Amino acid sequence: MVKWIGVNKFTMDYDIQRNTYTNSNEIAFDGKRGIGDWMVDELTAYDSEYLCHEILLASNTTIIIRFRDIEVFKL
User: Fold this and answer.
1) pTM for the structure as a whole
2) Nearest 5°: phi and psi at 31?
3) Which pLDDT tens digit goes with each residue over 24-59?
4) pLDDT for res 33
């Protein structure tokens, strides 16, 4: 589990139109598959005060979180 502390920006570029069947405009699984699995992520320094966490999901959605501190817990 991840806890971002002091978040001052959150963006997510999810577009359901990316989840279509090949060579079709039909939304796969009627759009009921969610936004996809967490594939890869990267933590970087945004500036001297904030960090940035960029997360790429299987649906090609990118989540960007800007924050002051982070806690990661083992479940």
Assistant:
1) 0.77
2) 75, 15
3) 777 766 666 667 789 999 999 999 999 999 999 988
4) 65
Contacts of 47 (CB under 8 A, 6+ apart): none
Residue 6, by phi and psi: left (phi above 0), alpha (psi -120 to 50) or beta?
left
Buried b (16+ CB within 10 A) or exposed e, 2-13: eeeeeeeeeeee
Q: Could you tell me which residues come within 8 angstroms of residue 62 by beta carbon, excluding any fewer than 6 positions away?
A: 11, 12, 13, 54, 55, 56
CA distance 66 to 13: 15
